[in-house]
Amino acid sequence: MGANRRLYLSEFLCLFLSIFLLGSPLFSRVDSKKDRLNFLLITIDTLRPDRLSCYSSEHLQTPNIDSLAEQGALFLKAFAHTPMTLPSHANILLGATPLYHGVHDNSNFIVREEFMNLGGHLKSHGYSTAAFVGAFPLDSRFGLTQGFDVYDDNYGSTSSQEFSYIERRAEVVVERALNWLDDQNTPWFLWIHCFDPHQRYGPPEPFKTQYKDHPYNGEVAYVDFTLGKLFAYLEENDLNDNTLIVFTGDHGESLGQHEESTHGYFGYNSTIWVPLIISFPGIKQGRIGQNVSHVDIFPTACDILSLEKPSHLQGVSLLPAINGKKLANRAIYFESLYAYYSRGWAPLKGFIQGDEKFIDSPIPEFYDLEKDFDETKNLAETKKLDKYRDRLAKLIEEQSSAGGVDSKQKIDREAREKLQSLGYISTTSTTRKETFTPEDDLKVLLPYQDKLMKAMGSYHKGKIDEGIKILKEIVAEREDFNLAYTYLATLYKEQNRLREAAEILRKGFENNPSSYQIIVSFGLFLTEVGQYGAAVDILEKGLALMDYDPELWNYLGVAYWKKGDFEKAQEAYERALSLDHNYPIAFNNLGSLYLSVFLIKKEPKARQKAIRNFKKAIELDPNYPSPYNGLGGAYRNAGNIEGAIYCWEKAVELKPDFSFPLYNLGLVYLAKGDKTQALSYFSKYKEMYYHSLSSEGKDKLDTLIQKCREKT
Length: 712
Hints:
The protein is built from 28 helices and 14 strands. It has 712 residues and is an alpha/beta fold. Among the domains are: 17-21 and 40-328, Alkaline Phosphatase, subunit A (3-Layer(aba) Sandwich), CATH 3.40.720; 582-650, Tetratricopeptide repeat domain (Serine Threonine Protein Phosphatase 5, Tetratricopeptide repeat), CATH 1.25.40; 657-712, Serine Threonine Protein Phosphatase 5, Tetratricopeptide repeat. The radius of gyration is 28 Å and the shape is globular.
């Protein structure tokens, strides 16, 4: 995707500032751009410092990252402000915490345009700028593109079911970045992001075999190997002598510590302690034990590059620490709000100051990091916590934007599906409490989440009964664990136990009448099994609580449409679109409604409206297959056979197992006399859906296939 070239601060004439003098803490100002340092920022997703041998030799060797550390300053106690990819990179690139920029989670947040990021700041000072990112959470749609001449987030165009669709390997990212570097003459800023250590762990060979028992370590070793190619390029092209390099991770990975398998829930050091290495010509090499954080990278770069600092920066320059001076004993704010936004669980916020770490949650925590960096002994009961709560409240007040910033926005269908494929649950509406008890604490609820994931793991292995048993245990112990009801209903449906699926969803609704997940799941289930009136009742009860949610109005429209009440279905879809003017699913469903009206009443205006709405859905989301299928049907009924074929083939290209266009393409090619093409589509349809057809449907399909095989 193209770069966002808009600049939000006007360019102005300025003195060109130059490189750091070798062996000196002072800077020399010169006028030539060619004498200014380049800037290479490397961020590795989900990277624990203790998996780098420059931090710890216990697990594996990382010689290339080690070589960078040997040439620069390694920070032993660097911390992220949040254990999630998008907000963490916003912290790095904006030099401010989520309290300022308002991006708290990967889902439903977009960095607002008015914020000046590193790319924009360096662009305004004459730098060529480029970003090459490794995975979808940093897609250009989420707002980090400001100031980048190139923002390369092309993950390919394969099916969303394939892993390659939402991430690409480090070697691809680095290769594309090096191709860009080949063309650079002026000072440049290059950001490279590698996603590989993130779950699902799957390193390529030989690392897959070498680390078969520890695939996470294999991903780290692979990234180190790939970065070796990048560092070799810098050496071969004499770029080390005029390049600032900053290497860090966006967050860590628990790997089972504190009973968290990955990241995103807790705020322990297993997920917020990150590596940080800074290297530039003439740097005083060494290991620095002072507390630092992600927001310090922006001001540090400004000092090293001799650029003025934007006024909004919340971090401090680390150049004094690199030169042996002691930094002020600041409080470092952190938060973990993924579960709060996606589940309605208690929020988690805290701070680190010196060796003290305070975690504010319904079950508070306090740790002495000098004695207990792995946070195994909670000292909260031995402390007077009010002063720490007051200190946290003051910190939040100081770092929050004046008047507050809301960067929360509704993300589109494609974005939600891609984030879910990476393991992030994304909902547009979650009912959240105003006050929380210890029962809402992450430490209480996460074990149930782990059981839920174990149940779904059993399901994916074909052990559905085992999964059902685990989920039944969860709902018996925690009546308010919403996802357990919806997942249990899904497993019952897999076994065609529809009555039990309905009963568990009804029980979930009775126990959690304001749960968005249960309302939606129950309403859609009832629609699916033909209980349209009951579906309407459930969805309308949900809208009594959340009439601002366009998705609920859309689901209500589907129920009314299936019920045959086209007038109320139209009203529901239009209400959804009044709340979200760019909602492709609602436009598609409105198109399907008008097409139904045309097929029943033969009104040409209804067909025209159907075509208009299908086209609008495609305009908003060109990778959404359903409107192509609907538009194909409208074209077929208008006599535009070639238009119908194009649309249906496009739908199959986007979704190869899409039953309706597969079958329709077989029919239309057979009618055209192209029996070879017709047989191809009917055969694909039979391979995928023959087992689920009725006897009549099987006979009809077999007859059509036989016609394709008959000689003319």
